[in-house]
């Protein structure tokens, strides 16, 4: 079975083909250089770039599948696309591409939740899908637009426990980077600057929001901004290290606490911020101390990609959830159950 995945929710145009759990192709056109001049994603520029790049990106991803299928046979058995959450202009481009491929090849089209894609990406190792998730588990999804905790009892059985009330973790990294004059996207830049610092005397608040499963990172960003106003000659490395430490400690404490409370045995971490080495080390150590396993998405699949959309689509097909498909988009899509009761 071969499935084409399409990803256009934010600033990466992606297409990938998954064949019986193995990636046949994985193509991503990153718009990062386009948005860098504006220090963030400009939605109008993003949708135009998606419209321009979607055809060549999908064609490149389909090339090896067309070769394998042979003349006159459809290269894929299904098409999965990210139907939300995301920027409407980009989502429409992905939906139209998916509908076109579905009609052309006469195969079903499945709408996938982009954030669920980030979770199932944890099962990719060296381009292969492996059974790495053990249910029930606690999922931490940390990206530029979202910071959420889910209890997951099986594929397609995700329940939202809490999310950020304001900025997402990646957004906080990006905003602090901007305050420090570092380029977009800020996460990797802040991590690099922090690694150069030799310890830090600065201590920013830990926004723990006790008694809730929610996050709030805008106060932490404001604390950094006030600090910089009072210390014009502050070392960017020391500030980055102190900010990263406060954010990582908060994510770690809240995630491990939630995992213990929901009686799960493992924690899975996905999304762009999951690439952060300090977060990976801190969560792995704290989880191990609490007797919990951790599964992190491979670094190359942390950022947005279509492989994770194909992967989620394949799980949905296996669960017989295709009838939930269609080509509609939903920029504010919430989690929906499609998996079997376990
Ligand atoms: O998942 P993603 O590629 O796109 C969204 O769905 O939002 O996440 C992008 C976010 C950006 O905010 C970026 O700064 C952050 O992930 N990020 C990082 C790192 N690499 C990417 N944050 C912290 N440390 C990193 N190494
Ligand atoms: Zn994402």
Strand percentage lies at 15-25%
- Mean model confidence by pLDDT: 96
Helix segment tally: 10
Kindly identify the CATH topology of the largest domain: Nucleotidyltransferase, domain 5
End-to-end CA span: 25 Å
The CATH class of the largest domain turns out to be Alpha Beta
What does this structure look like?
The chain is α/β, with parallel strands linked by helices and 342 residues long. It folds into 2 domains: 2-126 and 301-318, Nucleotidyltransferase, domain 5, CATH 3.30.420; 137-297, ATPase, nucleotide binding domain (Nucleotidyltransferase, domain 5). It is built from 10 helices and 12 strands. It has helices at residues 32-36, 43-69, 88-105, 114-120, 169-179, 186-196, 218-230, 236-261, 277-289, 307-318; strands at 2-7, 12-19, 22-30, 78-84, 109-113, 124-125, 128-129, 137-142, 147-154, 157-163, 266-270, 293-296. It has a 5-stranded mixed β-sheet, with helices on both faces. The chain is globular, with a radius of gyration of 20 Å. It binds 5'-O-[(R)-(carboxyoxy)(hydroxy)phosphoryl]adenosine (KG4) and zinc ion. Zinc ion binds next to helix 4.
List the helices and strands and how they pair.
Layout: E1 2-7, E2 12-19, E3 22-30, H1 32-36, H2 43-69, E4 78-84, H3 88-105, E5 109-113, H4 114-120, E6 124-125, E7 128-129, E8 137-142, E9 147-154, E10 157-163, H5 169-179, H6 186-196, H7 218-230, H8 236-261, E11 266-270, H9 277-289, E12 293-296, H10 307-318
Parallel strand pairs: 1-4, 4-5, 8-11, 11-12
Antiparallel strand pairs: 1-2, 2-3, 6-7, 8-9, 9-10
Helix pairs in contact: 2-3, 4-10, 5-6, 5-7, 5-8, 6-8, 8-9
Zinc ion binds next to helix 4.
